[in-house]
Amino acid sequence: MILSGLIQDGFASSRLIAFCAISESGNLDYCRLILNKTQNTNLFSWNVAIRGYSESENPKEAIFLYKQMLQSGGLRPDNYTYPLLLKTCAQLSVIMIGYEILAHVLQLGFDSDIYVHNAMIHMLIFCGELGSAHMVFDESPLRDLVSWNSIINGYARSGKPSEGLKLFREMEMNKIRPDEVTMISMVSCCSQMEDLNLGLEFHRYIDEKGLKYTVPLSNALMDMYVKCGSLEPAQVLFSKMSKRSIVSWTTMLIGYANFGLLDSARKIFDEMPEKDVVPWNALIAGYVQCKQGKAALALFHEMQAKNVKPDEVTMVSLLSACSQLGALEIGKWIHHYIEKHKLALTVALGTALVDMYAKCGNIRKALQVFQEIPGRNALTWTALIGGLALNGLAHDAISHYMEMIDIGLVPDEITYIGVLSACCHAGLVDEGRRFFAQMSSNFNISPKRKHYSCMVDLLGRAGFLDEAKELIKRMPMEPDAMVWGALFFACRIHVNVQIGERVAEKLLEMDPRDSGIYVLLANLYREAKMWEKAREVRMMMKERGVEKTPGCSSVEVNEECFSR
């Protein structure tokens, strides 16, 4: 073409530019060279080159190419140029450049074009400007199915499912027929709200309207059923899929793991035709969730053997496994791995490290990591407060809690478990009463059974047995064995047989096979010198076939955990 002079023909050169820009065997550098060297380049050539860069690994070059086109003069962008540029801004999340391009769109009057209009909404949503996107949507008479899908998906992606559902109802009133893309957003909203009944309603709607079960739609439905705690419909959908993506397999794996069906989860994992880091993380997290820390660590060794590169999520799960096992040396190795491979110390990863060190008894290292974490959040402070309490540093736990409140962070239920436990360890009754009251009065947190258990333990240990008993009576929910157990233990400490007998009855109603209750009751009678009663309890154990449970301990040797 160069030798014949055809390269200077606008139509001929545009075909070559298109080939270089968007064909599988194309070359974007050569495409750029032709653009720069050719005279009379037409708008099609610039647009197709911008498209090529927008779909490449270096999409920001599409923006630079657009600026070059403007500087070359003589050509006016059209309604094909701007959707490509707005899509690129969305991909790169460059809102300021996006606004500059929007200004050009408005200046040239292309905002009345439906394709440009939809691209504007899409760009604003992906750049986190949902309010502005909704304003553009509301103020324009141009609305097709894509417009509705974009704004509804924006709310679903932003964790605002109620608003997304409201827009769907409005869409129905406007006689716009939903498609598979709409249903993906709606099902996602149901997942976020964990509303199984609404999810079933949309599933029926899909069948009634004869919509196609695309892979993304089937994945969204499976995810909804898993998150709503209904595994069987997810299994049915999975079995009917003729084509499955890695998301399909991973969703089913997570479903089995969430239900504690780890053998089924492992079977799915082994059957997967391809695996990236996500399914590995899902199965490791499943083992951790089911308190099988050893299995989680073993799977990580498999992951390394397969040369799958772990990420932050992997490390957080492994540190949780170490926390469960009390495996400090393995936890230290994971910390070294994080530093060696230069994984960023994010808040989530830092919090997991603080929690691991604290639960494994190295509170000094937990404090050191805590100080190194940039942008500590409430979860980080909570992990440290709980760790300080666990390690008997009650006053330090409380001072960190006070500091957390002073800097404006909001505590949650777990924070207060740590604070009340600290009060319990140190016998700080007045402080415990005050913090327990603050939960509802200052932070609108309704105490759960665990909080009541801490308070009963605190009051009971200090000898306020009647107050502890009254607190249990005022509980808005049925007390569990942990709450009654705290009071029973206090009765043993203070040799209060009258309350202790009644509490023991409650505990034996809940679990008549628990040998510990019989042993504690017999010991209570012995300490009160009620020898006959103690013998009766021992006889009752024998008659009921209850045997004393042997103790169990765990120890870490050469980075392996052993129980005995």
TrEMBL record:
Keywords linked to the UniProt accession: Repeat
Keyword Repeat appears in the UniProt entry: yes
PPR repeats: 42-77, 144-178, 245-275, 276-310, 377-411, 412-442, 514-548
Domain of life: Eukaryota
InterPro entries reported in the protein's UniProt record: E_motif (IPR046848), PPR_At4g14850-like_plant (IPR046960), PPR_rpt (IPR002885), TPR-like_helical_dom_sf (IPR011990)
Protein name: Pentatricopeptide repeat
GO molecular function: RNA binding
GO BP terms, alphabetized: RNA modification
